[in-house]
Design brief:
The chain is of the alpha+beta class. It has a single domain (about 1-120), classed as Nucleoside Triphosphate Pyrophosphohydrolase (Alpha-Beta Complex), CATH 3.90.79. It contains three helices and seven strands; from the N terminus they run E-E-E-E-H-E-E-E-H-H. Strands 1, 2, 3, 4, 5, 6 and 7 form a seven-stranded mixed β-sheet that branches. Strand 5 and strand 6 form a beta hairpin. The longest helix has 13 residues, at about 45-55. The relative contact order is 0.26.
């Protein structure tokens, strides 16, 4: 199976208790997720998360910490996906759909409803809890002969 790394960013409005969600266009139906997508070759997890949020929502974000790490096997595609979900905060930009072929809607969703779409076992209450771990990028090491 091919390993696929995917990053998501949890953007939580603490005052309104809403989570920014995107509605993705699927093959047979639409579905909500946090903004995010596949990591491209040579990209760090953080770079991918920031790029994906910008592409999908028009927003600039900074990554604060790791919210969760999970995985799934998609046997029909031959993929073993590792999902890295970061906590982030908006630093600029304006919400807009720049990829209408991929994104149908961008919405601030009530935290309890959003938890139904965030695929983490026992995720109830985690969004508001601020539980997280730091994201650390170790130096890129170039092998020298």
């Amino acid at each position: 199976m091919k390993r696929v790394d995917v990053t998501y960013v949890l953007l939580f409005d603490e005052e309104a208790e809403n989570v920014l969600m995107v509605k993705n266009r699927g093959d047979n139906s639409s579905y909500y997720t946090l903004p995010g997508g596949a990591v491209e070759p040579g990209e760090t997890l953080e770079e991918a998360a920031i790029r994906e949020v910008k592409e999908e929502t028009g927003l600039n974000v900074e990554i604060d910490s790791v919210f969760s790490v999970s995985e799934a096997f998609f046997e029909d595609r031959g993929h073993h996906a590792i999902f890295f979900t970061f906590r982030g905060r908006i630093t600029g930009g304006e919400i807009n759909i720049s990829l209408p072929e991929e994104i149908e809607e961008i919405t601030w969703m009530d935290m309890q409803k959003a938890e139904e779409f965030i695929h983490i076992t026992d995720s109830k209450g985690l969004i508001k809890s601020n539980s997280s771990v730091p994201y650390l990028l170790r130096k890129r090491v170039n092998k020298q002969s």
